[in-house]
Automatic annotation (TrEMBL):
Organism: Mastacembelus armatus (zig-zag eel)
Single GO MF descriptor: metal ion binding
Official protein name in the record: Phosphodiesterase
Binding site for Zn(2+) 1: H219, H255, D256, D365
Catalysed reaction equations from the record: 3',5'-cyclic GMP + H2O = GMP + H(+)
Keyword Hydrolase: yes
Pathway: Purine metabolism; 3',5'-cyclic GMP degradation; GMP from 3',5'-cyclic GMP: step 1/1
Higher taxonomy: Eukaryota, Metazoa, Chordata, Craniata, Vertebrata
Length: 503
């Protein structure tokens, strides 16, 4: 049992409650094993900051909106005899917004559901929690119902851009947008894919992503959407065959299937079944490939069933290479190979194309910092939560602790400045040399992200020097907040992360 769990038990708080710990002087403390013992004369104060996500209170304005909408619907039915489509759409949007407030955890950081003072408010009765299977079937029904609707040209164009905001879309809607990607690239016609089979395939892919902080279906969608955008931005449709485009898009879609939330280092050190099965060689990536082709082995999901054996062999081999390339242990090997080829790159050369396809999948996989900060920063918070979960488990099991995942040593800005400087920028720079048009779309945003996190890191160091102390790192939601940065300074740089809390 970890220290945080003990505090939760003491406060009778649920797993999703947000806690604050204060010392006798009112200073916020970092809940960690290094806490000094307190006494009757000098005791800690524990506070539950926000309500559990499963019993949150909805804003009164939302209830008022639903009442007015219901009243309007009743009046229209009296006059017309049926509910117009526009009202059905409004009802759907209101319900969608309610679900997002209840379930999108990054919104809860802003304290939307905090009670005012000591006022006691009884939560409204909620509908019974759906099982995972029921939730998936609900997503499937929504997906199929929406799949025949016409997606606007504005959305289609936005879907081709790196600034696309995934947080605005539900899972069923993302499945519809994935269907749009396959149809707009003309894969259905070129490879004789039946629409129903594509829909079954996309839904099965959705079902095989786990509900974990980062490597989930939303991440899968973001990586696939970035790949789709890069294909259009670089005009790869005129440079590569359609079969290679299918390989890249489907590899992006399947690249993290059934990810358990613990990386390859953990798998190997813990001697998990995956590490044993794949002899410590890219166990996760090999597993993602195996799950992908397990899905494709089902006739109702096999989007490749109408291809020749040579086409299938080509696609299978290409997908395996692209997905295995996402193992960061092979990053330098693949990047260095691309660096050598880039000055003399030839789109008709099979080996050149193979390396480019790997690079494109890699870029898409780690492209969050190329997105607007409002989209990218919540993803970093999700990633840090997954990292911290792993390091906590490593400590509990007595395994070597992965340094960049240790919640007691890593800060949010330092983790990003190093990753951007030594991984993202070298990779994005090389790709931009081949496709100069990408400079404004992915390279410049990453450079701005480096400046953003560098400024944040400098602010922490400067304040620590002024105070002559080395303060602990305070955790904010799923991320780390710099203990040395004042609340005023933090509000100026990151207005959505204002509360010092413990995940």
């Amino acid at each position: 049992l970890c220290v945080t769990d003990l505090f939760r038990a003491a406060a009778e708080a649920g797993p999703h409650h947000i806690l604050k710990l204060y010392d006798p002087s009112g200073r916020v403390l970092n809940i960690c094993p290094q806490l000094e013992a307190n006494s009757e004369d000098s005791y800690y104060r524990l506070e539950v900051v926000a309500s559990d996500f499963q019993s949150v209170l909805m804003p009164a304005e939302l209830d008022d909106m639903e009442y007015r909408l219901h009243h309007l619907e009743s009046k229209v039915i009296e006059d017309v005899g049926k509910t117009p489509d526009i009202i059905c759409e409004l009802k759907s949007q209101v319900e969608s917004f309610r679900r997002k407030l209840e379930s999108v955890e990054h919104l809860s950081w802003m304290g939307l559901f905090k009670d005012d003072g000591d006022q006691q408010v009884s939560p409204k009765p909620r509908t019974p929690q759906l099982s995972v299977q029921e939730e998936r079937q609900q997503v499937r029904r929504k997906f199929l119902n929406m799949s025949s609707l016409q997606v606007t040209e504005e959305v289609r164009e936005h879907l081709k851009s790196p600034i696309f905001d995934n947080w605005q879309w539900e899972e069923a809607e993302m499945l519809v947008l994935l269907q749009v990607m396959y149809t707009d690239l003309d894969f259905l016609t070129a490879f004789h894919i039946e629409l129903e089979v594509l829909q079954n395939f996309l839904f099965e892919v959705y079902c095989h992503y786990n509900s974990i902080p980062f490597h989930n279906f939303q991440h899968c969608f973001c990586v696939t959407q970035m790949m789709y955008g890069l294909i259009w931005l670089t005009d790869l449709r005129s440079k590569l065959g359609r079969i290679d485009l299918l390989i890249m898009l489907t590899s992006a879609l399947c690249h993290d299937l059934d990810h358990p939330g613990y990386n390859n280092v953990y798998q190997i050190n813990a001697q998990t079944d995956l590490a044993l099965r794949y002899n410590d060689i890219s166990p996760l990536e090999n597993h993602h490939c195996a799950v992908a082709f397990g899905i494709l082995s089902k006739p109702e999901c096999n989007i490749l069933k109408n291809l020749t054996s040579e086409q299938y062999k080509h696609i299978r081999g290409g997908m395996i290479k692209c997905i295995l390339a996402t193992d960061m242990a092979r990053h330098n090997e693949i990047l260095n190979k691309f660096k050598v080829l880039q000055p003399v790159f030839n789109f008709t050369n099979k080996d050149h194309k193979e390396v480019l396809m790997k690079i494109m999948v890699k870029v898409s996989d780690i492209s969050n910092e190329a997105r607007p900060m409002a989209v990218a920063e919540p993803w970093l918070d999700c990633l840090l939560q997954e990292f911290f979960n792993q390091s906590d488990t490593e400590k509990l099991k007595g395994l070597p602790v992965t340094p960049f995942m240790d919640r007691d040593k890593v800060s949010k800005p330092s983790s990003q400045t190093n990753f951007i400087r030594f991984v993202l920028l070298p990779l994005f720079t090389e790709l931009t040399k081949l496709f100069p048009c990408l400079e404004q779309h992915i390279l410049e945003p990453v450079q701005r992200a480096l400046e953003y996190y560098s400024d944040m890191e400098r602010a922490r160091k400067e304040e620590e020097e002024e105070e002559g102390t080395n303060k602990p790192l305070y955790r904010v939601g799923w991320c780390l907040k710099l203990g040395g940065v004042s609340l005023k300074t933090w509000k100026q740089t990151s207005p959505t992360l204002l509360t010092t809390v413990v995940p």
